[in-house]
Amino acid sequence: MAGTSGLTDLALAPDLRRALADWQAWLAHEKRVSPHTRDAYERDIIDFLSFAIVHGGGPPSLESLAAFRTADFRAWLAGRAKRDLAKSSTARALSTLRNFFRWAGRRGFLDNAALANLRTPRQDQPVPKALTAAQARQTVETVAELSDDSWVARRDTAVLLLLYGAGLRVGEALSLTAGEAPKPGQDRLQVTGKGRKQRQVPLLPSIPEAISAYMAVCPYPFEPSGPLFLGKRGGALGARAVQLKVQQLRGLLGLPDSATPHALRHSFATHLLGAGGDLRAIQELLGHASLSTTQRYTAVDVTRLLEVYEKAHPRAKG
Question: In the predicted model, what is the mean pLDDT of residues 285-299?
Fold first, then answer.
């Protein structure tokens, strides 16, 4: 395994050193873990063992690791937090440690159930940055230029309109059946979101018009229970095809790397909020189970929240 000098330099009991060498060989030859991943595992285990040396006041052994309590493992995690290590890095390190302890347990080297009581650190979920209103509008209006087939051009316009104009997830838009296609003049649509939860979303007039225009020229027949959006061969349109179209638009329009299909949904929410939309109403439109998710998703700035508080909270008016 590459980079084993780090483990060699640690003061470890002979039984633990032998077990670690066997574990590394198992990763390389039986699990066929890549050298890059094995190096990451080694860094993680070195970090933990370095802590164990200081924490235990001497070279750790299989016996001393078997005696580690949940509080000891938490002390290691707390130390990582004090060093401002990324949560993603700590989550991976904890996964590495669990991997080694499970392997050692299966081989009878040590038995320690304390790791099961530890929760993996919750990682901050990155949210796509919203496009400007002009960028979002340009994205929707330009996607038709990427295809020579008029029906494909109209299909792509309709899909992106659902993302930016109604805030649908890509999967929600592509899961619509032909029987659920909104008709011109229809002002709302029932959408099935995560957890099979249904919600009503309002429709701009341009959305059912765009869908009808696409259906009118699509060369394939529609079945009421079949997919509304079809691929070039007549099967259901996949999310990857939509992602590739937006990727092409990034190059064509000079959009940032954050411009993705999901960013159009994010832009829908952000632009509504910026125009004074109610946060709870936006929560319902997005299909979020909790308001806290909407606050994160729409990147509500502190100034905006303070304005809402000062206008709405009784104590703030006194």
Answer: 61
> Residue 3: left (phi > 0), alpha (psi -120 to 50), or beta?
left
SS3 assignment, position 279: helix
Catalytic positions are: 169, 194, 262, 265, 288, 297
Largest interatomic CA distance in the chain:
77
Neighbour-count burial of 172, counting CB atoms closer than 10 A to its CB (0-12 exposed, 13-18 middle, 19+ buried): buried
Question: Residue 182: is its pLDDT beyond 80?
Answer: yes
**Vertex 150, ends 145 and 155: CA angle to 5°?**
85
What share of the chain has pLDDT > 70, as a percent? 85
Inter-residue contact 45 to 53 (CB < 8 Å): no
Q: What is the pTM of this model?
A: 0.56
pLDDT at 197: 82
CA dist 307 → 120, 310, 311 (Å): 36, 5, 6
